[in-house]
């Protein structure tokens, strides 16, 4: 089984590899355009980015599945502040499934910098004096004192978008 991932960010590739380890898949990174802004700012835009990446990765490779992962920030109904969200999408060329990773509220000073139109990755690097934090533990790692990290968090989005292809519980869906 070959799985194309619409990104070359090592943290996304790792997240897919670790999640599908059991199924002995070959994971192939492919650079694609997400078709949304560098920093998606709503659930809808984040999901669209993941969908575009999944479709484009499949088209570019002819793999069995295309996987897209997208990070975003959003003000969520029922919770205060600005949240970091992440979504996954998987397609086999026919069906497309979507599933989310965890959500975490961003500290107010980080939220304020994002409201100025900036991207989370660079804002985190500036704040912490790091380089490429988004390709390692990620903001979710830092803000949880490493109880989780970006690989594990994105892995949940992979499980919830790819997993439905592996069961027959969805077979009756229209
Ligand atoms: O190369 P790609 O696949 O685009 O990888 P990316 O890190 O840019 O990931 P996204 O485009 O999906 O994420 C949109 C923005 O949100 C940032 N982001 C998302 N999750 C993050 C995290 O846990 N830590 C730091 N930045 C994060 C990311 O760096 C981007 O600036
Ligand atoms: Mg990006």
TrEMBL record:
<comment type="similarity">
    <text>Belongs to the YjjX NTPase family.</text>
</comment>
<keyword id="KW-0546">Nucleotide metabolism</keyword>
<feature type="domain" description="Non-canonical purine NTP phosphatase/PRRC1">
    <location>
        <begin position="6"/>
        <end position="166"/>
    </location>
</feature>
<keyword id="KW-0547">Nucleotide-binding</keyword>
<dbReference type="GO" id="GO:0103023">
    <property type="term" value="F:ITPase activity"/>
</dbReference>
<dbReference type="GO" id="GO:0009117">
    <property type="term" value="P:nucleotide metabolic process"/>
</dbReference>
<keyword id="KW-0464">Manganese</keyword>
<dbReference type="InterPro" id="IPR026533">
    <property type="entry name" value="NTPase/PRRC1"/>
</dbReference>
<keyword id="KW-0460">Magnesium</keyword>
<comment type="subunit">
    <text>Homodimer.</text>
</comment>
<dbReference type="GO" id="GO:0000166">
    <property type="term" value="F:nucleotide binding"/>
</dbReference>
<dbReference type="InterPro" id="IPR002786">
    <property type="entry name" value="Non_canon_purine_NTPase"/>
</dbReference>
<keyword id="KW-0378">Hydrolase</keyword>
<keyword id="KW-0479">Metal-binding</keyword>
<feature type="binding site">
    <location>
        <begin position="7"/>
        <end position="12"/>
    </location>
    <ligand>
        <name>substrate</name>
    </ligand>
</feature>
<dbReference type="InterPro" id="IPR029001">
    <property type="entry name" value="ITPase-like_fam"/>
</dbReference>
<feature type="binding site">
    <location>
        <position position="33"/>
    </location>
    <ligand>
        <name>Mg(2+)</name>
    </ligand>
</feature>
<comment type="function">
    <text>Phosphatase that hydrolyzes non-canonical purine nucleotides such as XTP and ITP to their respective diphosphate derivatives. Probably excludes non-canonical purines from DNA/RNA precursor pool, thus preventing their incorporation into DNA/RNA and avoiding chromosomal lesions.</text>
</comment>
<dbReference type="InterPro" id="IPR050299">
    <property type="entry name" value="YjjX_NTPase"/>
</dbReference>
<dbReference type="GO" id="GO:0046872">
    <property type="term" value="F:metal ion binding"/>
</dbReference>
<protein>
    <recommendedName>
        <fullName>Probable inosine/xanthosine triphosphatase</fullName>
        <ecNumber>3.6.1.73</ecNumber>
    </recommendedName>
</protein>
<dbReference type="Pfam" id="PF01931">
    <property type="entry name" value="NTPase_I-T"/>
</dbReference>
């Amino acid at each position: 089984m070959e799985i194309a991932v619409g990104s070359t960010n090592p943290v996304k590739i790792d997240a897919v590899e670790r999640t599908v380890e059991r199924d002995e898949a070959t994971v192939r990174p492919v650079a694609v355009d997400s078709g949304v802004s560098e920093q998606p700012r709503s659930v809808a835009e984040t999901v669209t980015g993941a969908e575009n990446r999944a479709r484009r990765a499949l088209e570019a490779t002819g793999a069995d599945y295309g996987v897209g992962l997208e990070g975003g920030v959003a003000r969520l109904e029922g919770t205060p502040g600005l949240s970091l969200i992440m979504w996954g999408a998987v397609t086999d060329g026919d069906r497309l499934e979507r599933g989310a990773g965890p959500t975490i509220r961003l500290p107010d000073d980080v939220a304020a910098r994002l409201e100025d139109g900036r991207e989370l990755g660079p804002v985190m690097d500036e704040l912490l004096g790091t380089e490429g934090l988004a390709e390692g533990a990620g903001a979710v790692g830092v803000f949880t004192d490493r109880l989780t990290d970006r690989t594990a968090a994105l892995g949940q989005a992979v499980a919830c978008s790819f997993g439905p292809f592996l069961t027959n519980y969805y077979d009756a869906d229209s």
